[in-house]
Write a structure and sequence with these properties.
36% helix, 332 residues, 6 helices
């Protein structure tokens, strides 16, 4: 039992430093002259732990429990490895200006969050991309807050293992990644970060689509829906893609509908007038509710009617997707 602060300022710990129990008022490890090879926290923390001021920790491993009265602060430190395994946060977990670094350039840095509940953890200006390997698996992260920097949209894995030759094999489970990005989407929604909310939602649908393709039997309804969503507006994140899609699809169906009627081949007008007339008819065709006799009052034959109806369906769908994406974009 320590009734006052427990301080470590300076010194080199070449082996592991474990905090497994005890009662403290506060544990503070700080200073650039403090070097710890491996710091392991496996206690039920009901006090405050502070790691700050450029203290050097090669590996930080958390697999304890921060109770509602406990707190863990990481401020302005560098790590080669950060592991949260079977860890639960019920109190305060705050990381600010944490960066991955290694004195040996051959050593790859790692961030591992596995089978953990981060609770309302806060990440302020944490350089996630500085970690060579980033693994998130079986964890609850939908209440976290990220400020200034965010968990990246790519490069997240669900598992990795080292081979006998020292190489690292990484795995990406689509179903698990879709759940991870769905949780991040919900976290950004609660935080009010509209842009990252949209980006994470797109990643959630991206990995959900991959999961559908791997299922047996395949969920064709889900596959078709998400594939159209991807092609139309990239999961409602790019309304300009939707506008371009409308023009291309309308152009294609206008051409095949006109060809089915023989309208393209048998008009004797000059080139200028020919193009001018097609532009006028094409603008009419862009409207999904256009008249069947939109080409100079001509009646459509059977094939032309089929192509015209298909064009109406696809154009209406793309218009809907574009409006949805534009509204999402406009609310950022």
């Amino acid at each position: 039992v320590f009734l006052s602060d427990f301080l470590i300022h300076g010194g080199v710990f070449k082996a592991g430093f474990w905090i497994q129990g005890g009662v403290f008022k506060r544990v503070r490890i700080f200073g650039p002259n403090t070097s710890i090879f491996q710091l392991v926290l496996s206690a039920y923390v009901t006090w405050e732990i502070v790691l700050e001021s450029n203290c050097r920790i090669k590996s930080l491993i958390l697999f304890g429990n921060i109770k509602p009265s406990g707190a863990l602060y990481l401020k302005n430190i560098s790590l080669s490895e950060l592991r949260l395994v079977d860890f639960e946060n019920e109190g305060v977990l705050s990381l600010s200006r944490v960066v991955a670094s290694s004195q040996n350039s051959d050593i790859e840095t790692k961030l591992l969050i596995k089978n953990s509940n981060l609770g309302k953890a806060t990440f302020l200006d944490v350089d996630f991309n500085s970690f060579t390997h980033k693994v998130i698996s079986g964890s609850k992260i939908n209440n976290i807050s990220t400020v200034k920097t965010h968990i990246p949209l790519k490069g997240i894995y669900t598992n990795f293992k080292e081979t006998e030759k020292g190489k690292i094999q990484k795995e990406q489970n689509p179903q698990e990644l879709s759940e991870i990005y769905n949780q991040l989407y919900l976290a950004m929604q609660k935080q009010g970060n509209r842009q990252m909310e949209m980006e994470y939602y797109a990643q959630y649908l991206h990995w959900q689509l991959k999961a559908y393709w791997q299922e047996k039997p395949k969920n064709w309804a889900g596959i078709v829906s998400l594939e159209f969503n991807r092609f139309s507006t990239n999961y409602s994140t790019n309304w300009l893609q939707g506008v371009l899609g409308i023009l291309l699809i309308a152009f294609f169906f206008y051409i095949v509908t006109s060809m089915a009627m023989g309208y393209i081949y048998y008009e004797p007008e000059t080139v200028f007038y020919y193009l001018q007339k097609h532009i006028i008819q094409f603008t009419k065709f862009l409207l999904p509710t256009h008249d069947f006799n939109f080409i100079n009052g001509r009646e459509l034959n059977a094939w032309a009617i089929i192509f015209d109806l298909l064009g109406r369906i696809f154009i209406a769908f793309w218009v809907y997707q574009t409006i949805t994406a534009f509204r999402r974009f406009g609310r950022k």
